[in-house]
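Re: your question from the hallway

Yes, I did run it. Sequences:
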Amino acid sequence: MRKIISSLTDGRGFDIGLVALPLGFLFLMSGLPLLYNVLMSFQEVDMFSLGSFVRPFVGFSNYVALFSEPETWPIFANTAIFVTASIAGQFALGFGLALFFWVNFPGASWLRGLFLVSWVMPGLVVGAVWNWMLSGDFGVINFLLRESGIISGNIFWRSDPSYALWAVILANIWLGTSFNMILLSVGLSSIPDDLFEAAELDGANVWQRFYTITLPMMRSSIGAIVSLGLIFTLQQFDLFAAITSGGPNNASNVAQYWAWDLSFRQYDFARGATISVIMIVFVMFASVVYVRSTKQEVRG
Amino acid sequence: MSETTRNRLMLAIALVLAAIYLFPLYWMYITTLKSGSAMFATPPSFWPSDPQWSTYAYVWESRNLARYMGNSLIIAVGAVTVITLLGTGCAYVLARYRNGWVDVGLFLILMLQVLPASLMITPIFVGFSQIGLLDYPRLAVIIAIAAKAMPFFVVLVRATFMSVPMELEEAALVDGNSRVGAFFHIVLPLARNGILVSAILIFMQAFGEFVYSKSIIQAVEYQPASVGLNSFMGPNTNEWNNIMAFATIYVTPILAVFVLLQRRIVSGLTSGALK
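Structure:
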């Protein structure tokens, strides 16, 4: 007994205790739900069997039923559009801003940090503000577009099926650009200055320096940031809840919102679990890419 | 072009860029000060001629914001407490050793970090309802948020512990401290700032959390402000000045903390996400 106590205060037991408790908690509250999710996707779950662990096992029929629904493929296509457009927009704008703020001038780092307010705000608030700005008749976005002559009539961003998804994408790009910019700034500042000086002496112009030094040196940061972007956009839920609720008629529905909607609006928990499993496999894949691209740093 | 002119020019462009980027925030604040008719005027005014300060008091009373904000605060403080107590030790051990087990642990933690809340809520909700945790809805949300956000905290705080020189701890051990003593008297005080910044980041996340609260908390008296804001926004609402006032009251404390601690938060965030 004494030996155990002394090990806890002054030996291996101390480390093991410190790490076992949180890992146990994470296993119980994240690991088990993950496995439970897979189990439920093979079961028949309804309101009556919700409380019992023993439910009819149905094999792959949840998956088969899911893919025979007419809305399944459009929603997965929406997810792909949402993810691709969001990441492209966030990355392009973020990279542009990062390159701009890379030029050192007084106040640069403070102003750059200020951009991050879009990222620390609750998603629901961001959604509410964009919902109002994008409203059809009185939204300020429509007003600005009309005044600058880009559109002649109002766009009904939230209720027009061809714009609803783009309304959410627009808000998501705004939300994520600053985070991309900050991380890209870190990558940029780690490129040694003498590389650029040497290239300049050799007569390379701005574009040549960008393509032959900046981009190759940023390769691992860019990999990490794009996969982080994929992870974050697949987590985006609040904006859908705040702006379109997936409507009209699923025009702006994506898999992560649909899974929640099936479980908590239509009480079809098995179907919700099935989509969750499919999407989690995707996210896991993205995170392996992320871990690999930061591997040197993780190992130290 | 001289150095000063160039700096001034860059600063001016930067200010314009920041103004464009932060326009949604400005629009939120300005809408709260408009009256019902000024809000729907065409063209919209970009500066309120007749600021309606009473909107805040009206929304605070009529939407029962004190209760919503109180619930958000309880949930955020609870989640930060659980995460800090459990996560700090874990981050310390993962920073102190280099071996296969640590790599495996880190990999698992990074994997758990990426699971989307809206996908995990289905099994969490069913599981919690089976073990009866849904009877304590706020506690259930705190636990769910803690499990979701702890990996992020561990990754950030681990980066802090890595920057504490191990020699200091070894010196304390040579001087007769136990491992526990060295941890609490030497390592923790040195890592205090990093832990604080990470805890603040987690607090901001938990304060704005929506999916878990929306799904788990049915009773309106336990709901946080994010759920309250969501139910305030009906599909055909036209009370946008009141909704923006709700959002303003909700978000301004977070923005204030962020602007005050901006430098530290940004550096803490970047050290964890890429290193």
